[in-house]
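Render this sequence as a predicted structure.
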Amino acid sequence: MERLDGARFLVAGASGGLGAPIARRLAAGGAAITLVARDAGRLEALDVVGERRSFDLRTPESCSAAVEAAAGPDGRLDGVVNAVGVVAFGPVEELAPDVMEELFLTNTFVPMMLARAAVPRLAEGGVLINISGVVAEKSFPGMAAYAASKAAVRAFDEGLAAEVRRRKIRVIDARPPHTETGLADRPIAGTAPRFPTGLEPDAVAERIVRAIIDGERELPSDAFTP
C-alpha cells in the first residue's frame, strides 16, 4: 500500500489516545475513514474527517456491523486499525475474576472477532493492525494479567499473518513502548505504578501509518526508538 488516497479504513477505538492520531494521519493521507468507538459523544468531538459509528465491539455482531459500515459499496475494505484496549494494575491475587475477564474480552477477543469479520472483506494488499504493546514482549510486576491479554494478541497476529499471506494481506502487530495516551490513568482496576515519561502518541501514530504505507509486517518495540 504505497499510498492512502482513496483507501477505505476502519479505525476501532478511534476516540482513544492512539486511535485518534492514527485516524487523523490516515485521513490526512486521503483515506476514507470509518471511526468506531463506544462513546458517541467523544466520537462527535473528534477533529477527523470520516463517518462516525458507535459500537460496543465486545460482541461478534457489533464487530461484523462495524466492518459492514466501513466497507464500500462493493464490499471492499483496505485496512483495519484496532486501537481498542483497557488496562488493570495490581498483583494477581488482588485482581477480581471479572477484571481478568474484561481484560481478555476487550484486549484479546475484540481483536480476534474484528479480524474474523474483516478478513473476508479485506482486499488484496490490505492490512490489519493490532496494537499489543511492549508488554507483549516483556511482562512486569503488577501487570501480569494485562500483559497476558496482550501477549495473546501477538500470538494471534503471528498465526493470522501466516493464514492470510497468500492473499497478500498483511497483519501488523504493533508493540510500542509506554505511550502517553492517558490509558494508565483510567484503569478498570488498581493504580498505575510510576512510569517514566512515555512516547508521544503522535510519534507512535506516525510510525504505525508509515509501516502501513511502506509494506512493513511487524513493529516490535525497538521499531519505535528514534
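Summary. The radius of gyration is 16 Å. Strands lie at 8-12, 32-37, 51-54, 77-82, 122-131, 170-174, 218-219.
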